[in-house]
Amino acid sequence: MFEKSLSLAAGVFLLASAALGNPLVPGSAPTVPDVFTSTGWTTLATTGPTALTAPTFSGTGQAWVVSDANNVFGAGKLAFVYQFTSNLTSGDPNERITAGTFSGYSVDAGYVAGSGVLPSNVSLSSGGNVVGFQYIPNNLMPGQSTVLLVVQTDATSYIPGTYSVQDSTTVTTAGYAPSAVPEPASLALIGAGLLGFSLLRRRSTKN
User: Fold this and answer.
1) What are the start-end ranges of the E strands in 40-119?
2) What is the CATH number of the domain that holds 9?
3) Quick check: is 197 in a domain?
């Protein structure tokens, strides 16, 4: 789904550069989403396509975390990406997609132009925790896909997180969230370094 969206949007990327970022202010009124580009993204993790089922709708969602060369907060900072496709047999349209948790980080939200339905506006909760992509009044109808929804941040590491798809009911599923601590791979390297230092110190003490 991700590769298909990027392919369909390639022409748009060549013709337009990313808009200047407008960082979201916690608790402010919903605003027009920014337009981003996926050029310069390096995928760090993805959930893969995930079947989502709520009492009133169903579909497939996917989340990614990418190192973003064009991040408004600095090259290489992390962006969190989401896409949802409603099943054609879904009972209800979808009205909102939310993602967290972003409290303590600078965030900007928008989308990658391409094949899919644009959000009407974006918002950041008063505590800076939850980014919301609104599909009101232009609902995401059964059978439709969102564009790639993007939350750019000033984070440099990530942990497991969640995102939710809503209409009159909600389904919450696995995604990613920014973290002030290193990724597991970095922690393993730090641990190995400390172990090596400890062994050298013991050897030095014995001598």
Assistant:
1) 41-46, 50-53, 58-68, 77-86, 96-100, 107-112
2) 2.60.40
3) no
